[in-house]
Design brief:
MetI-like fold; 17 helices; six-stranded antiparallel sheet
Length: 557
């Protein structure tokens, strides 16, 4: 009987079924871990935008009761013995104590955003509907009670009437801020760009010996026109700033003091304790839209990350434009034209080994070859009027894209070669028999049939390039880029400009932020958004690959 069971077990093992189940189990566990990690990042990041209630509590410390106002951002259970060793006095019956992280805001008044408090020392806890939370352009959030609204120092509304008056004046202030932003960043920025181009044109004519009196007069005339426009816009901006300074609001903060704050620095003001679930949901989606469409502020710990999204997508697109033709040409030569021998095998080994080189090595190569050598020579040849200020001899989005194109080139070469190898020999011979040349066969028959494999390589290249950070720190990415690489100024696509990147934004906010606790939820949110951006780019490439596969399926059969 034992022999029979043993024989059945050996037969079952011989069928390979255990290894199939083992592989399926490993894949399932991996998927659960991946989706669990994504769910954790999504929950940690997306909950950041929900308007939390503001608590007012009486807190005992140093024998006195202090009033605290803020948002509870987290809690944990800590050992009472550990707190006693740190000098805290706790009842002897306490073994585990709940410790809260309270976001108090009011950084310009107290110097810090967060404070740790422990549950046994909380004497009372209240959630008054009159408490307001103010999101500001500087100094973080402000919490307290709205007491009055003033115009040029004179009270125009106080008490409950101050809330409606503040909302009405806030709409006016936000409209003024939008006008100032349009004038300073749009119109004045365009004028500054044109004035710089005029300076470079004048210097270029001077270097070529063509700066005669007529050319100088034309340049001065155009410069005078732009200067006149600049002075007019500067006056408009000054008038708008003057209007911004008139409105202030008075808030009673946690210590009972009443302080005046400028309304011009307010992004929005709300009463979270008085908001319904519908109101909070509307606020949540408005903050999500601000996150993906606005520019960062407060050292990247507030506002949105649109420039980083734009820079990431733009860099990946430019990288794809470069890596695809080079990868395809290299693969076609190795598979279709090169004589198969020791040299070709050595080249393939080198290509495969390049895929394992650390990314920072590519960054150093890009900095030395693309930026200093190639960019420096381009400046000498085509932009001498701008020297010694570099044009392409400095890190920028072009060099970052080329560096990542070299980094991902081995993936595209290998995937395209595999696709070319799968094209049946009979298809090639049939094309040649019908009178097509080898080049025509390759261009019209072989490459279209291998295009799904090419797209697979491009998908893998995009997935790796979009998440790289180390090489980009050397060849173009910066903490904050005031101008996008694509705008309305000729030549519209500025490949020499530096740019922002989601991966570097995560590194900067998570490790270089002056306020780590405030930035932590933003790190999760940005990481989740980076995954979403990579997923969207990959899904677009997968859709194109599937269409190509269906189109050429009949030829393969």
């Amino acid at each position: 009987m034992a022999w029979a069971k043993h024989g059945k077990f050996n037969t079952w093992v011989g069928t390979g079924a255990p290894w199939v189940w083992l592989s399926a189990g490993a894949v399932s566990i991996s998927l659960v871990m991946v989706f669990g990690l994504l769910a954790l990042i999504a929950v940690k990041g997306m909950s950041y935008f929900w308007p939390h209630d503001v608590v007012e509590m009486d807190y005992r410390e140093a024998g006195a009761v202090t009033q605290l106002i803020g948002e509870i951002h987290g809690s944990e259970e800590v050992s009472a013995e550990r707190l006693r060793s740190a000098g805290m006095t706790l009842p002897s019956h306490e073994h585990m104590v709940t410790r809260y992280l309270l976001k108090m805001g009011n950084r310009d008044l107290g110097g810090g955003d967060f404070r740790s408090i422990i549950e046994p020392e909380v004497a009372a806890r209240r959630y008054p509907e009159a408490l307001v939370a103010v999101e500001r352009r500087e100094w973080g959030n402000l919490y307290g009670y709205l007491r009055a609204v003033k115009e040029n120092g004179v009270v125009v509304a106080e008490g409950e009437a101050a809330w409606d008056e503040l909302q009405r004046r806030l709409e006016r202030v936000q409209d003024l801020v939008a006008q100032i932003r349009r004038i300073e960043k749009g119109e004045i920025g365009g004028i500054n760009y044109k004035l710089e181009r005029l300076r470079l044109d004048e210097r270029g004519l001077e270097l070529k010996g063509r700066l005669d009196a007529a050319a100088r007069a034309d340049l001065e005339s155009e410069r005078a026109i732009q200067q006149q426009r600049y002075e007019g816009l500067q006056q408009q901006s000054s008038d708008l700033y003057q209007q911004l300074r008139r409105d202030t609001y008075t808030v009673e903060v946690a210590d009972g003091q009443q302080r005046d704050f400028p309304l011009a620095k307010v992004v929005q003001i709300y009463r979270p304790n008085a908001m319904s679930v519908l109101d909070k949901t509307q606020y949540y989606f408005a903050k999500l839209w601000e996150f993906v469409s606005d520019e960062p502020r407060e050292a990247n710990t507030e506002g949105g990350i649109f420039p980083a999204i734009f820079g990431t997508v733009m860099m990946v697109i430019i990288m794809s434009v470069f890596v695809t033709p080079f990868g395809v040409v290299a693969a076609v030569y190795l598979r279709e034209y090169a004589r198969q021998g020791p040299l070709t095998r050595l080249i393939r080994i080198a290509v495969n080994n390049l895929a394992g080189v650390p990314s920072i090595v590519y960054g150093v190569f890009g900095l030395g070859f693309f930026v200093y050598f190639l960019g420096g020579n381009l400046d000498q040849l085509f932009y001498p009027e701008a020297l010694p200020s570099p044009t392409f001899g400095t890190p920028g989005i072009l060099w970052a894209s080329l560096t990542l194109a070299i980094l991902t080139l081995p993936v595209v070469i290998v995937a395209t070669e595999e696709g070319l190898a799968r094209v049946p020999r009979s298809v090639r011979e049939g094309s040649l028999a019908l009178g097509a040349t080898k080049a025509e066969t390759l261009w019209r028959v072989v490459l279209p049939m291998a295009s799904p494999a090419l797209m697979t390589g491009l998908i893998l290249a995009v997935a790796r390039a979009a998440g790289e950070v180390a090489p980009l720190m050397l060849v173009g990415v910066v903490k904050l880029a005031p101008s996008l690489p694509l705008d309305g100024d000729a030549p519209f696509l500025h490949l020499d400009r530096k740019f922002m990147h989601l991966g570097f934004h995560i590194f900067d906010v998570g490790f270089q932020s002056p306020n780590v606790e405030a930035a932590r939820p933003l790190v999760y949110a940005t990481a989740f958004l980076l995954v979403v951006v990579i997923l969207v780019l990959n899904l677009a490439a997968v859709a194109i690959r599937n269409r190509l596969r269906e189109k050429y399926r009949t030829l393969e059969s």
